[in-house]
Design a protein that fits this description.
Blueprint: H1 9-17, H2 30-33, H3 55-64, H4 111-121, H5 192-198, H6 205-209, E1 219-220, E2 226-227, H7 237-240, H8 263-266, E3 283-287, H9 305-313, H10 321-331, E4 336-339, H11 346-360, E5 376-379, H12 383-396, E6 404-407, H13 413-421, E7 426-429, H14 431-439, E8 450-454, H15 456-460, H16 465-472, E9 484-489, H17 494-500, E10 509-513, E11 523-529, H18 535-546, E12 550-554, H19 558-570, E13 575-578, H20 584-595, E14 601-604, E15 617-622, H21 629-636, E16 646-652, H22 661-670, H23 677-687, E17 712-716
Parallel strand pairs: 4-9, 4-10, 5-7, 5-8, 6-7, 8-9, 11-16, 12-14, 12-15, 13-14, 15-16
Antiparallel strand pairs: 1-2, 3-10, 3-17
Helix pairs in contact: 10-11, 11-12, 22-23
The structure holds adenosine-5'-triphosphate.
């Protein structure tokens, strides 16, 4: 084994390129698996940060922290000098670069040195949002190229990197259905790390899904799922094209634990905050033809007794604005695009009226069948989010015969299918897994009455959009005239609104609660100018001040998430991490540890930016700012939920973040936050004298982008001061 102290560039290259079987071995299993074949040894001597004086002890520490075998990040921050201008060196984790043996805190690394590490990671399309997007400014598209391939910190010791407690669990031939999108995330040059375990193929995410270049060309969504590309196999691609059975890559055996059955857990909820009542003052704009009036109370919704009981048990006494408007619209059978701030109750806004309809229609209890035909399909971009939606569906349908099922990638496909065949009225799914089970003819679409796209702007962008299009053109899927399509998000870029027309009836209604794309006002936003070399120090300072309050730290890449989490653990700050390169078991464990406060700091990529509703998250720190303002809005929305207050601190790096200055100023001023003078200056200098922080600009889609619509009314949520739009005209055609 080459010592880090003497390791030169070539050594790193060799070190990186050779498969590191040991990096997949849980720490507690390492003795068993390391026969010395790859030269790794696993020194179990405890190492404290003070023991990190030399390269070898540091390395040992990284190992114990679950970091990628043999790839100590050494003492350098994974620099970001090329963050904005990635040139996508494939698999470029320090290729030809040395990371070893520098001072941890004070060493800046030379421009040239940093490139190998981060060029590659800046096209981490699973977690990076829209670096290379096709759409301007918002939403966006990123090439599906995933060269992120390091298996850093997959296996962990205590503290930071947990997971894998269920053991090694790979390559088990237990099920016909084990292969899924979640197994094949790792591509590029290091794709082989998977195959090192499975002994199958090269493990390349995209190639393995493309069935050897048949043109299916898998796409990995920006946030989450690996999406099977389209091709001749079309909607059956995964079943027929080998996705589920014969592709390379290890099989996924993870079976998530069943959700709790006891009523207390099902209905566990957190308290609404002091600003909950202020929701009523937010202006709501409804556009489209003939909208039904808003309701002001749950009673007005005329829900059945069981639903009312469940609502009461969930602690809901009062509707939020998006619920006041969306519930009657959905009950009236209308299609809907609804945009409301983060944490303001969009999930119940669609679940309650759907369940009410199902109850009204006298839905029959599901029973065992090989082919299930759900009445409702809900899709969301990330596994954790769809699971959360499922738990909400389960809560509100408690005591009814409606059966909700959740399926998502990274879990054993056989398990998903077993859940489905037992009966399924509401199917909550991530897109890849949904297409899998449709392809396997476990799910039929003929009975679909409700199609819900949560985080709809994300579901329709170029990451998931093609898959969604495939879904609506699957055999059996009722046409948009025959089904009800509902879209929800806190952000809705104009480009995406236009795409949505293909999914919605032309007379759909658009509900905008407050400013479309605006940040939640209950989050106190602070922007600090922090250069990349000072970020870690600043982070530690802030976290020490915060103490044990729950904090999400967002970084831009998966590798960096590992790096920062490990660094914080070394600093004795109890931290865990979630990102797309962690196994599902690990992701769930990390989220669980964070939820329960065992690890009060969660370092995350954008995979955790949307939708997650975690009690008591008091702080969000953007260690790296995202590249789009929408992403920023979603990230900071993990705090300040449901009327509670929260704080968001963002490190603004002059070198790399100036393109965000203008939209940031806009978001801050719209949310009535202090705007630092220096930020305004940057925004001004970037965009010239025409820019005004208060100008509407083009940062948000302020309203329904249909140019002509029949009716438009602006109301506060008490339902007053309606203004009618002038002269109704024919519906804008979207097709
Ligand atoms: N009417 C209500 N009364 C009390 N609590 C509510 C009400 N509606 C929703 N909540 C709670 O508010 C929290 C946030 O709701 P939800 O997750 O649906 O927000 P969201 O608008 O979907 O947020 P995001 O944009 O981040 O996805 C949840 O804990 C939910 O149970």
């Amino acid at each position: 084994m080459v010592s880090l102290a003497t390791m030169g560039d070539e050594d790193w290259e060799a070190e990186i390129i050779k498969p590191h079987i040991s990096s997949y071995v849980p720490v507690f299993e390492k003795d068993r698996y390391s026969s010395g074949a790859n030269g790794d040894t696993f020194n179990r001597t405890p190492a404290s940060s003070s023991e990190m004086g030399d390269g070898s002890s540091r390395r040992d520490h990284f190992m114990r922290s679950g970091f990628a075998s043999g790839r100590s990040l050494g003492n350098r921050d994974p620099g970001e000098s090329n963050k904005r201008e990635n040139t996508s060196t494939v698999g470029g984790f320090g290729v030809g670069k040395s990371f070893g043996n520098r001072g941890f805190s004070n060493n800046k690394f030379e421009e040239g040195d940093s490139s190998g590490f981060w060029r590659e990671s800046s096209i981490d399309c699973e977690d990076n949002q829209t670096r290379n997007r096709g759409f301007s400014k918002r939403g966006g598209y990123q090439d599906g190229n995933d060269s992120e391939a390091l298996g850093s910190s997959r296996r962990g010791g205590r503290g930071s990197f947990r997971g894998c407690r269920g053991g090694f669990g790979r390559g088990s031939p237990n099920s016909d259905y084990e292969q899924d999108e979640g197994t094949q995330r790792s591509g590029g040059i290091f794709g082989s790390r998977r195959s090192a375990l499975s002994g199958a193929g090269n493990g390349d995410t995209f190639q393995s899904r493309s069935g050897g270049g048949s043109g299916r060309g898998g796409y990995k969504g920006l946030n989450e799922e690996v999406i099977t590309g389209s091709g001749k196999n079309s909607w059956k691609s995964e079943a027929e094209g080998g996705e589920s059975g014969d592709t390379q890559g290890p099989k996924v055996t993870y079976i998530p634990p069943p959700p709790p059955e006891d009523e207390d857990s099902i209905f566990a909820h957190y308290q609404t905050g002091i600003n909950f009542d202020k929701y009523d003052t937010i202006l709501v704009e409804v556009s489209g033809h003939d909208p039904p009036p808003a309701i002001l109370t749950f009673e007005e919704a005329n829900l059945c007794q069981t639903l009312n009981n469940n609502i009461a048990k969930a602690g809901y006494t009062k509707l939020t604005p998006v619920q006041k408007y969306s519930i009657p619209i959905i009950q009236g059978g209308r299609d809907l695009m609804a945009c409301a701030q983060t944490g303001s109750g969009k999930t119940a806004a669609f679940l309650l009226p759907i369940l009410a309809h199902m109850m009204r229609d006298g839905i029959t209890a599901s029973r065992f069948k090989e082919l299930q035909e759900p009445e409702c399909i809900i899709v969301a971009p990330t596994r954790e989010l769809i699971n959360q939606i499922y738990l909400e569906a389960r809560k509100f349908s408690f005591g009814t015969c409606v059966r909700a099922v959740v399926i998502y990638g990274g879990t054993q496909l056989g398990h998903s299918i077993r859940q489905i065949v037992q009966g399924c009225n509401i199917l909550c799914a991530t897109p890849g897994r949904l297409m899998d089970v449709i392809g396997k003819e476990k799910i039929g679409l003929r009975q679909v009455k409700y199609l819900v796209l949560d985080e709809a702007d994300r579901m329709l962008d170029m990451g998931f959009g093609p898959e969604m299009k495939k879904l609506i053109s699957c055999p059996g899927m009722p046409s948009k005239e025959q089904r009800q399509t509902l879209m929800f998000s806190a952000t809705f870029p104009e480009e995406i609104q236009r795409l949505a027309g293909e999914f919605l009836k032309s007379n759909y209604l658009f509900v905008a609660v407050g400013q479309v794309g605006g940040a939640c006002r209950d989050v106190q936003q602070t922007i600090l100018q922090v250069g990349q070399y000072s970020k870690r120090e600043k982070l530690v300072e802030i976290l020490r001040n915060i103490g044990d309050e729950r904090t999400m730290v967002f970084v831009e890449t998966k590798k960096k998430a590992d790096f920062i989490a490990t660094f914080l653990c070394q600093e004795k700050i109890s931290t865990t991490s979630i990102h797309g390169d962690r196994e599902q078991r690990e992701r769930e464990q990390a989220l669980g540890d964070f939820r329960c406060g065992k690890c009060p700091v969660l370092v995350a990529t954008s995979v955790a930016a949307r939708g997650l509703d975690i009690e008591n998250v008091q702080h969000v720190i953007n260690f790296d700012l995202p590249s789009t303002i929408d992403e920023y809005v979603h990230r900071i929305g993990r705090t300040g939920r449901c009327g509670n207050t929260g704080r968001a601190i963002s490190f603004f790096d002059l070198e790399s973040d100036s393109q965000l200055a203008q939209p940031l100023v806009k978001v801050l001023s719209d949310a009535q936050q202090d705007v630092p003078a220096w930020l305004e200056e940057i925004a001004f200098s970037t965009y010239g004298p025409g820019f005004s922080g208060n100008a509407r600009g083009n940062v948000f889609a302020s309203v329904d982008t249909r140019k002509n619509y029949h009716g438009k009314s602006s109301l506060n949520t008490a339902g007053f001061s309606s203004t009618q739009a002038p002269n109704p005209v024919d519906d804008e055609s979207w097709d």
